[in-house]
Design a protein that fits this description.
InterPro entries: ArsR-like_HTH (IPR011991), LysR-type_TF_proteobact-type (IPR058163), LysR_HTH_N (IPR000847), LysR_subst-bd (IPR005119), WH-like_DNA-bd_sf (IPR036388), WH_DNA-bd_sf (IPR036390). The chain is built from twelve helices and eleven strands. By secondary structure, the protein is an alpha/beta fold. The N and C termini lie far apart (56 Å).
Amino acid sequence: MVENRFARRFLPSFAVLRSFASAARHQSFTLAAEELNLTQSAVSRHIRDMETALGFSLFRRVGRRVMLTPAGKNLADALEDDLDRIVQTLHRAIAAGMSDAMLNVASLPTFASRWLVPRLPDFERKHPGIGINLTTRIDPFDLAHERFDVAIHFGRENWPDAKLTKLFDEAMIAVASPRFVEEHAIEGAQTLLDAPLLHLQNRPGVWADWMREAGVQDAQVLPGKQFDQFTMVIAGAVAGLGAGLLPAYLIEEELRTGTLVQIGTTRHQTANSYFLVQPLGLENPSADAFVAWLGQQA
């Protein structure tokens, strides 16, 4: 009981913690004040109150600048992620209060923007009482520390302590703009050997794999422009920079409108797939409804 009273007495307010986190990030009380729409004196007072409550210095002055002390840096490193989680939790709580049920869904950015988001209006029409919070990132999701109801995972079926439902496999097709096809006299896979190709940096051998399946020999080294995102490969192909090798499900709209056309009929199926991931041991009818709906979309 004594420890609890001590903690309540000396625990800084959320406003004070935000001021410290911002000042630590910028190494400047002035920039922190601008970011938080406060006066510099208010930020200085927050830092002073926090140092008094904690009993040690968080910053030291070096000329006209401020720098974190070792203790201040340790606190700042731990606090940044904690504050982000608090803000996310509050946002989700507010959203949940505006809906009968709120699902927290995680996805890769390109998959979300190109495939999932255009389909979400259909889900909302069929399930008007379920809201969606969508989070995207490139790094792997951690269901043990992040409160996601459903995560859309790309890779192998190797996610421990989770329920996985396969959405679909990845099939890569060669595409280009109609003008590019005409200008380079593209008639099939063989003619692509003399044409500019667009590559994804983390898939260095996928063009050669596609070429072999299409019956093209000696297609080991295929020069061309390098991109780090599928969205950039799509944009480059539409602009006529070259032929792109892309997952068919990411370019449904471009194929439908004729902005891009498929070259040949080869569909190279990679070793990876998309899976719907749910935490084990949690009953969530809304998440089950979302997963079932996604299965129908595939």
